[in-house]
Here is the input.
Amino acid sequence: MPTVSDAAQGGAPLPFAEEASGSASGAAVADRIASSISLGLLSVGERLPTEIELAQQFGVAVNTLRKGLAELRDREIVVTRRGRTGGTFIVKAPFPSPEEVRERLRDTSLVDLRDLRDEHVAVGSAIARLAATRVWGGSIVRLEELAARVSAARTPAEAASADSRFHIELAVLAQSPRLLRSEIRIQSEIAPLHWTFSDFEQTQTIVASDHHDVIRAVMEEDGGRASLAMSEHLQHDGVRMMDAKLSIDPDL
Ligand SMILES: [Zn+2]
Here is the structure.
């Protein structure tokens, strides 16, 4: 059976399939697929597996799966083309609108945001420590490539997706399916919150420098330093997230 790491590297099944199985509705299936895209685990231009394969992965009836795909088509996230070269293709990465992010920030207390940050620091620094002990040649090149994508991004949505992908790649490297699942879940919550309202270029610069520090420590197989560098990086993300909360909620 494929593992979560296979999924994050582009194999089957989709990373959220497991959670959606059983009594999942079409809308739940649509949400899982949308999350995989916004986290950069599936890319724009990519073709989804066949309906039968997807239905099996999600453990739902083909009919339910079709409802999910129909919803994604309505949201203009995928298009379905008929014919021999047909299939369902991803055409847009879903990212919450600034209004949606504002609402989320308004509905989340500072205490909850702090807790989210603390969880992320705990999970992320454990991942960085493990990754440093399990690193191999090609993985550094891949991490550097992903880090460069954050700097090359032109919009907060692109940067947030690339940023998430960097952290997920590190979690794949750590070889812990549980930590990987936690990182994926936290990234989907946190990335829009700290990218949407911050100064874009300044954030890109800080994130690039932080990621560089993490990569260097991982490359030198220094688990302690990798953990510390990641912890500092995620503290910076947390500060941006709380600044965003304070800026939209000045009464606090
Ligand atoms: Zn990051």
Notes: The pocket of zinc ion is lined by residues 163, 166-167, 207, 211, 233 (CB under 6 Å). Residues 97 and 196 are 9 Å apart (CA to CA).
